[in-house]
Amino acid sequence: MKLGEVNTLKIDRKTQVGLFLTDGKTDVLLPNKYVPKQFEIGDEIPVFIYLDHEERPVATTLKPYINLNEFAWLQVSYINQFGAFVNWGLEKDLFVPFREQARKMEEGKRYMVYLFIDEKTNRLVGSSRIDRFLDNENLTVTEGEEVNLLVSHITDLGINVIINNQHKGLIFLNDVYENISPGKKLTGYIKTIRPDGKIDVSLQKSGTEAIEDQAQLVLNELKANKGFLGLTDNSHPEEIKSVLKMSKKAFKKAVGNLYKNRLIAIEENGIRLVE
Description:
Elements: E1 6-14, E2 18-22, E3 27-31, E4 44-51, E5 57-60, E6 71-79, E7 83-87, E8 94-97, E9 110-118, E10 123-127, E11 146-154, E12 158-163, E13 167-172, E14 185-193, E15 199-202, H1 208-224, E16 228-229, H2 237-244, H3 248-260, E17 264-267, E18 270-273
Antiparallel strand pairs: 1-2, 1-4, 2-3, 4-5, 6-7, 6-9, 7-8, 9-10, 11-12, 11-14, 12-13, 14-15, 16-18, 17-18
Helix pairs in contact: 1-3
């Protein structure tokens, strides 16, 4: 039975306080308020295991915003003399001790938090000192690979992201064509892996495959706008970015691809879908 994770357990018996579930070795209580309306003894049920207010393992069918060894953008519910408590979607808030705060947390604000088990107390604990849980020395990704991204924070240089829950990377601002905020989950592509282990990430594919994807985006937008877009080679980059969420360079390549395949006609004031 794994603390901080979803476990599929068997319903062992029903009591006045709820169902007792088992993995064959250990039992845990699923309180009445989380018991499904229909069940039979022996059924298997997925539940999240954490510690209740008395530090006893307890099961819930609620889905937390974060699982063990993962990151999430969480809001501080309250602060006391021991640390901060953040809302992670469960009845009991997640504790973030002062020693695990990258900077002093404030009530009501959101922070990127990592969930781990404190070896000394065997409790689930949160930390906003996320860099120590990210490893860019032993990389598990390669250039061009599609990856899952979680936006951690934004600087003047670019958007800092967590890659596949393991590594840190950067999306340069001039590669971004949509509104992005901390906590947002995205799909990206490894653009460059530098000798020092730093990773540049892009939200668009590169090479021929990227042109094909961007051409499809232009095609979709044409269809959604009665077959005409008032964009040309002379359109301002910001106008193209606003309409299509891509750079002017990418737009020109996509238009060239569509024109080559005789899918569009290029007119003085824009491009038109060929029927």
